[in-house]
């Protein structure tokens, strides 16, 4: 049996890549030092995997920003708006173009918007969306994967290059005109084949082609394109071994299609879809190899060896151990680096966990158990048994309250049609009211302040005084800018999920459990290990203080139950939605306390609601119904005159718009600027009844949009929705931005709203 890892984290165990990239962008680090950091990180990963005894070690799983963007550069998929910039560069595939496509470019006479960003399937990882147009031509522009394969060879390590497969790359992108997918594939395939040919010539024996779209519902035409693509690759390179890799679900109705493709091995996710194994084994061609994804690449819980060994034994009995690879379910990109770095965690809870490095050991343990080392199995069984019976996991009062949830608990007093005039009268806002999504820039000083409090360097009194000063400054700035609904800035919050988890029972936290969300944005997801309960208020004091500073309404800011669920590592010993409803009850209590404290606008963010959507259509309705119920349970305790906001970002809403409407939030703010309000069309077609705030500028880019640009977006929005229902806001929170650009952008945003207001009053 071989061992196989589909991918490994790339940010560095101390977030070295994040720091290096951001220093490079700010001019504090040279390109040479940035590239040196990248080489060091790649070598560390290869050495770690080799030392762990992994047979198929990935390369090209490293990325400065995003693996889909890497494919765009390799295949020459460059949108037309970047071509003038590219023509000024000595190297047409250099990092300046790469980062411009990721972040936008506003210097040297150029003002170019970034590629759109969206979620990678049902994860919290964001990728840059390829853009395809009929006029584009494609060529091998970057040889990144070949160069990194050769780099590993120089260290004495033969790797398995990882590429996004041709159909997943196309299906992940956006076709900007009427180009057919078949015509696009025909243009891209020669470049793919050239890239694979160069890898083969460089000495690559195995190449991993990731095709996670094979676990989704596919149209017959797309299934036919899979056959065309892989037949062409096999005909051109019959001697290259292709490992066709799927994850995040089961092949189901695509099983026959996948196993008929002319490749040498298939990887399947047996964590998400263990039931698919029997069907796959019955259809796999003679001498075909199967990579069993039995160690969870998406969560941090220790593998239950008993369950995994049963699956491995089933596969070995069917096709023989020599044709089996043992693997993680997907890339370990979604896991923290090393559990050994967690020196302050409760030892009982820590023993139930495994991070990326420990998962390498689990893969090898399973191989050893199959080879007769049964002591490893016995130790693992003892840990599993101890977790099941641990008293710290179960809270009888929580379970009792869950049993008494009733439909009335998920219903506002009256419909939006009744609530809207009451809220307008209470808030007295103009048409096109302006607001922000919640957070304001988190400077190094603010981050240090929180760190100093945690380390005991400063007192709670000194910390509170500095946070109050930051809130006061932000309220005064918003008043100066003439925003209509204000926020307190969230300076006390390290992360929109971690902050709440730290105050809820049933959570535990890591010191170094960083994972990549997008680009250099890293998050430290909380771990939900037991029943969830709110011991005390979480946000009331800061929101009340901010409201005391101004006569304008200040939003109370909360994170919704589904987003806390999706952006945490969730216990796997009970159904996920049961945990979601426990979270909803905790948020419900906080909403009620905010309203009792005089906060009349409360935002409960659910940016991850769509992220949790099952990949198969047949299972989406049940999830959406439960997710909507969880949100409504959290917010339905308030009076009609209290305005409930929610926020969502980087999601397509067309196929779930009726469920978004069923959430019945009074106002929803959404990311739309990178897509030029394309998403808003779904709201117009559905005749979305409540109010909406389409983001008019992209906060993930440092560029400052002009007044005219944002005003044009507002006029476009007003052609799609009633003007009285439109809010004006950025795409998302301003936490990652600098104060100067934030003030400039918000000033332009308010002016755009006023100009649009003058024409629509």
Automatic annotation (TrEMBL):
The keyword Methyltransferase applies. It comes from the Bacteria. Belongs to the vitamin-B12 independent methionine synthase family. L-methionine binds at residues 437-439, 490, 605. 5-methyltetrahydropteroyltri-L-glutamate binds at residues 15-18, 119, 521-522, 567, 611. Residues 4-315 form the Cobalamin-independent methionine synthase MetE N-terminal domain. Catalyzes the transfer of a methyl group from 5-methyltetrahydrofolate to homocysteine resulting in methionine formation. It is an enzyme of class 2 (transferase). L-homocysteine binds at residues 437-439, 490, 605. Binds 1 zinc ion per subunit. It catalyses: 5-methyltetrahydropteroyltri-L-glutamate + L-homocysteine = tetrahydropteroyltri-L-glutamate + L-methionine. The lineage of its organism: Bacteria, Pseudomonadati, Bacteroidota, Chitinophagia, Chitinophagales. Its cofactor is Zn(2+). Residues 432-754 form the Cobalamin-independent methionine synthase MetE C-terminal/archaeal domain. Keywords: Amino-acid biosynthesis, Metal-binding, Methionine biosynthesis, Methyltransferase, Repeat, Transferase, Zinc. GO terms for biological process: methylation. NCBIfam families: met_syn_B12ind (TIGR01371), PRK05222.1 (NF003556). The keyword Ubl conjugation does not apply. The active site is at 700 (proton donor). The gene is metE. PANTHER family: 5-METHYLTETRAHYDROPTEROYLTRIGLUTAMATE--HOMOCYSTEINE METHYLTRANSFERASE (PTHR30519). One of its GO terms (molecular function) is 5-methyltetrahydropteroyltriglutamate-homocysteine S-methyltransferase activity. This is 5-methyltetrahydropteroyltriglutamate--homocysteine methyltransferase. Zn(2+) binds at residues 647, 649, 671, 732.
